[in-house]
Design goal:
The complex is a heterotetramer, with two copies of chain A (about 290 residues) and two copies of chain B (about 325 residues).
Chain A (H helix, E strand, L loop, with lengths): L31 E2 L6 E2 L1 H6 L15 H8 L6 E3 L4 E2 L8 H12 L5 E8 L2 E8 L10 H17 L3 E7 L7 H20 L4 E9 L1 H4 L8 E4 L10 H8 L10 H6 L5 E2 L5 H18 L1
Parallel strand pairs in A: 6-7, 7-8, 8-9, 9-10
Antiparallel strand pairs in A: 1-2, 3-5, 5-6
Chain B lengths: L4 H25 L4 H20 L3 H8 L7 H8 E6 L12 E8 L2 E8 L5 H6 L7 H16 L4 E7 L6 H5 L2 H13 L5 E10 H5 L6 E5 L3 E3 L3 H8 L6 H7 L4 H6 L5 E3 L11 H19 L3 H13 L4 E2 L4
Parallel strand pairs in B: 3-4, 4-5, 5-6, 5-7, 6-8
Antiparallel strand pairs in B: 1-2, 2-3
Helix pairs in contact in B: 1-2, 3-11, 6-8, 10-11
Classes of the chains: A alpha/beta (about 290), B alpha/beta (about 325).
The structure holds zinc ion (2 copies).
Chain lengths: ~290, ~325, ~290, ~325
């Protein structure tokens, strides 16, 4: 029912809160201030600088396809389950229209791309979430594709690598969405039992039900510098508790210090880190 | 839109009060209206029962949060004997928003765990309004692993607005604590039955609702997020929470249709649920029946089926290959 | 080589710090102030009050034999390994003399009694540490008897219940003593794997290597009210950090709040709690 | 009683300085004393070597604590390639007093973990002087369980004054963290080799020294408590620590006699241990040999033998039955 026509293009958007809808593509033309350090930037500058702010190194959001391409050896990625699309199981008001707008804006059928790829010569199952598709929220399709990715990894005895980015559960699918947390966690449980390596990359922002399920269950959890990672979003915490949030709260550096991340890695060196991790883990299996 | 139980209860309470005045008057005047009074009483109670049968989802949300409803400790005390509460996660703290321990249900030893709200403000502050922090989920995790070691079936009782949304909870890995509990329950090698008794709010509720069977009280709710949150995010108008309550399909019949839950236990009109012997008997026999059924299965089958239950949840389009 | 002649008698001693040697029996005659609330007490008063301070409910130390008798059904306890006694493997200065004095003072061969008993009709392996025997410190004999108790429980498929009380490792046995932490922890690991119930009762004081090994590895950990429980003793913490310790620091109530204990139970109700715990655990095994 | 390395080193340093003066003088005067100087040099180095062969246990305690010795990261960087440090306990924090991660040793992937001291005051404060807090032990626990899942052998490096003796550490269950780590290592289903490189202090050292083989550097120590602590408690005189160092049997030869450790790697006189190629080669081959030997055994045997190693430790009298 849906024909994705992939047209790679840069998309610099700030997703600092889950209630904010993504900027339209048009408003991103021309100069804009860096949301972290307020330096005025042009799109050209940022492209030249590999999607970072040249002053504060803020990592701007990249699309799921850019992520996949930046991690996999050239031409090796085979997409799985690209035909899966969301229905509107609860007949939730406006959901159909939102889905349609999201797929038109992103040229993607849903908020995650999964498949098989080769990284540094080593075969893996790889997935990346798309921040612009309804804030990377997890509905039935995202949950199903994560499970199939885990099952695909088990069938082939391959490592699983997922790049996460999400505003949380997709409310328009009600409990069907919340249960995807349980479903994906259970699938990761089986992956664990099979002794297969599972790595997640948490990018800005990863919050809510995705953080509280498959994203935080990896053997190795890597954060991108400055990424907002947590369960409850910062605005809701501020509103609910009336407390001022500490500096750097819920950012990668803060999470590393609080024991939740294994490593923080700049995006440019992400691929080389994965190659080293995969190599050592292959060594572990052969060495025995 | 009604915002508390008394708004939709008001009409009946007014009638009941009038009736009481009439009754007292009749005694004072020594006139006997007792037949008439009895008839009106019956009529009110019928109307009320009818009304309660047709509560809107939003009214059910309000009712599910009512502080006069029994809390987890009350269910444990009524349904079990020999309850011994066990404390602590052995890591950081003891979270009063989750109560757990071992007890005897019928003739079998069980592990019981649930979120615990208080019944007044002071109690509620102590129990953090039933919103667990990471140490609560980790206490549950510990008690579940113990249940597994001693082959004790588990009964969970669900009643929480959700996981604690505070700074400390984030600092100590709220998301990590929840995901680890989901993973733990999804493969725990003992039978697990969950009972949603009140407010089943978001991830904080879900974390204890991965079970072989899920039973729900007829006025309990179970939702991806509170209707208020959905209204404020999706409609930018928290006052339209009632619409969202409708749209979210969060009540027991809707969730049974979606195959999220397995059974519904009807609540009586009685304010004091656990004072109604029929309700207690119904609830007890529902838990008992499901626990018997799942306990009769070989453990490997049970775990496989629990996985399958979760695995098939979700609705989407897939093109024919 | 050693013939213990057991003569039950009351012994009220305060063991608030690990560097303090036990009071001699003589100094306990007559009145003395309660170390917690300073009320002057007579021995008779305390005996009448079941070993508590009548004002602040402080639990005074009782001997290992009193503990065993207070827990087991009358006449059911059979002692194991009563012949095990310490040598002086490192030829440590003064150790021989200290051992001799301790065994004369306590009429015990070492700092723990273990054996099989019946509690509320249910058979168990039971042990109790003796605070007056070199502060209940753990040397080779204590470690060995704990391991044998665990192994005895495994052979018979019985629950293991240990009442702990210790100043820590017995320095006079050097590394042989420290390694008892590893040895007892490993034995408890096997008990766990056998699926047998293990309960510890932590009494005043339980510190150092005993807390950091078998005492804190139980399925259910019960504290006596007001007992000092921890790894490093409070005096050392104060000296090392220069910080004032918070009120109630390292007491049972504080540990419960910090998630380390399952239950705090007054001594008088300890036996009835054990009976309930044992009964429910039996139910769990039969119920399946 | 010497209290730092320089006291027993002082005589040799003095001689070396004199010799240097002589050498410079001879150059200035253009007289050739080179033969004589070489002879004296050789003599000093012999005397010094002799002295280092007969260090008292107390001198070894001092040497083992020397901040110029290599720290755990240095050993990892020298002996392994591809080290990737992994952080955090996923519960509360990341403890800089314990460093751990995955790496390649020889041709096999391994998990490496050890206590980490700093080499100056600022670094030492950051690493808490190598005294782990509960989150450090729990990070180690997590990395060990991961090693087990991926069948990676484990190498631990021991160098710590002991577990952190602070209020926060007690609050978060220092004793619980240590005992759980002891239990974990005692049954971990991968080969484990420990190397005691410096100060093996008390429970904080022991927690990572439950292994199939324990290798000890010739000037490292491993003790139930520091000699100072023993002197202060048993003799009420901290100045008598030297006597206690003797009595505690805490150096490598004594511990080999007691069968606590398996092998000793001799240290060169070289200040910079890891700058001495022979020493590095010896250490590497000792680890390699023991890792090969234990890796060759079936896992069930390995775990049984690791248990037996611990089970037989201790000396006591038992009457003949
Ligand atoms: Zn910037
Ligand atoms: Zn008192």
């Amino acid at each position: 029912m849906f024909k994705p026509t992939f047209k790679p293009r840069k998309a610099y958007i700030d997703l600092s809160g889950i209630s904010k809808s993504p900027l339209s593509l048009d408003s991103r033309e021309g100069n804009f201030p860096c949301p972290t350090c307020s330096t005025w930037l042009s799109e050209a500058e940022i492209i030249k600088n590999n999607d970072f702010c040249p002053r504060c190194a803020r990592h701007f959001a990249v699309t799921a396809w850019e992520r996949i391409y930046s991690l996999c050896d050239e031409g090796t990625f085979e997409e799985w389950d690209s035909g899966l699309t969301s229905g509107n199981p609860l007949q939730f008001p406006d959901y159909d229209a939102k889905l349609q707008r999201a797929s038109e804006d992103t040229h993607l059928p849903e908020a995650i791309i999964t498949g098989k790829g080769i990284i540094g010569g080593m075969e893996c199952v790889v997935g990346a979430m798309e921040p612009r598709f309804m804030m990377g929220s997890m509905g039935s399709v995202v949950g199903e594709k994560v499970c199939r990715a885990a099952e695909g990894a088990m069938e082939r005895s391959l490592p699983l690598i997922l790049s996460c980015c999400s505003g949380g559960a997709r409310m328009q699918e009600g409990m069907l969405s919340l249960m995807q947390m349980a479903k994906t966690s259970a699938a990761i449980g089986r992956l664990n039992q099979a002794g297969l390596l599972y790595i997640t990359i948490l990018t800005h922002p990863t919050t809510g039900g995705v953080t509280a399920s498959f994203a935080s269950l990896a053997d190795i959890i890597i954060g991108e510098p400055g990424a907002l990672i947590g369960f409850t979003g910062p605005r809701v915490i501020e509103q609910t508790t009336g407390q001022k949030l500490p500096a750097g709260f819920q950012r990668s550096e803060y999470l590393l210090q609080h024991g939740m991340l294994d490593i923080i890695q700049p995006r440019l060196e992400m691929r080389s880190l994965l190659i080293r991790l995969l190599a050592v883990h292959q060594g572990g299996r052969n060495g025995q | 839109m009604a915002n508390n139980k008394f708004e939709f209860e008001a009409a009946y309470r007014l009638l009941e009060n009038k009736l009481e005045e009439l009754r007292q008057l009749s005694e004072t005047l020594e006139c006997d209206f007792s037949n008439e009074i009895a008839n009106v009483e019956k009529r009110i109670s019928q109307l009320r029962a009818e009304r309660y049968k047709h509560l809107t989802p939003w009214e059910q949300v309000i009712l599910s949060r009512d502080l006069e409803r029994p809390m987890t400790r009350d269910y444990i005390d009524t349904l079990c004997t020999d309850f011994i509460e066990l404390h602590g996660d052995r890591l950081y703290g003891d979270d009063p928003a989750i109560v757990g321990g071992i007890a005897v249900f019928g003739d079998r030893a069980v592990t019981v765990i649930g979120q615990q709200k208080g019944q007044d403000t002071a109690e509620n502050i102590r129990h953090n309004f039933g919103m667990p922090r990471p140490e609560g989920f980790r206490k549950a995790h510990r008690l579940l692993k113990n249940a597994e070691r001693f082959q004790r079936p588990v009964i969970t009782f669900i009643n929480t607005p959700g996981a604690d949304p505070g700074i400390g909870a984030e600092e100590r890995g709220q998301a990590w604590a929840i995901s680890q509990l989901l993973l733990c329950l999804s493969s725990l090698r003992v039978p697990v039955v969950s009972v949603i008794t009140g407010e089943g709010g978001s991830g904080g509720a879900l974390a204890l609702t991965i079970a072989d069977r899920i039973i729900m009280l007829s006025n309990a709710v179970f939702s991806v997020a509170s209707p208020e949150t959905c209204a404020s995010i999706l409609l930018r108008d928290v006052k339209r929470a009632g619409e969202m309550a409708e749209a979210l399909k969060l009540n027991a019949p809707a969730l049974k249709d979606l195959r999220i839950i397995d059974a519904i236990v009807d609540e009586p009109l009685n304010e004091n649920l656990l004072g109604a012997p029929d309700f207690v008997a119904d609830l007890r026999s529902a838990i008992s029946k499901h626990l018997d059924e799942v306990s009769a299965q070989p453990l490997d089958d049970l775990i496989r089926q629990r996985y399958q239950r979760l695995r098939v949840i979700g609705q989407f389009y897939e093109p024919d290959l």
